Amino acid sequence: xxxxxxxxxxxxxxxxxxxxxxxxxxxxxxxxxxxxxxxxxxxxxxxxxxxxxxxxxxxxxxxxxxxxxxxxxxxxxxxxxxxxxxxxxxxxxxxxxxxxxxxxxxxxxxxxxxxxxxxxxxxxxxxxxxxxxxxxxxxxxxxxxxxxxxxxxxxxxxxxxxxxxxxxxxxxxxxxxxxxxxxxxxxxxxxxxxxxxxxxxxxxxxxxxxxxxxxxxxxxxxx
Length: 223
Prior knowledge:
The protein is α/β, with parallel strands linked by helices. It is 40% helix and 23% strand. The strands form two sheets. A nine-stranded mixed sheet has the order 3-2-1-4-5-6-10-8-11, with helices on both faces.
């Protein structure tokens, strides 16, 4: 059984991940901000953990993380609050979580990032351009750490039911992907510790999720 601490536990991908973790016999510990979110997380099989990235320091967050095997960073401002909030959550929040994981002696850290081609060729706002820049800086910060990290870059997120089939690669064409399938890919990354220190791009596809992630498992490939 894995104990997984989910930063941004009330988000859509995070909730799906918590439910899938519980169904597989793992423990999901989901960080949430608003009191009314706790019961919904419990219903998914998660253990709700109250905390706000905007208020916590690394020592306090490390105490909340303590005892977990893996951290999944699923937090994001979602465009709300402008550039300042994006910087605080997607940027500083990631750096804070990395520092807290170190203090809590948790080596495995998985980041949900952004596909580099998102909205390229379209007219986008300054807020979105800042979002993409912050996401890239977060990737750089985590990749430069000594942690056993994985960065997952999904395409445009869909609310449609997952198909259980995806396309995953180091560099693939841009596309859409249901949130349920993103969560399923995260579950497979968690369950396959040989998937390590790699950036994975993810879209809809024709390959079963387990098989798509297994190609990155160094332990499996060397067996």
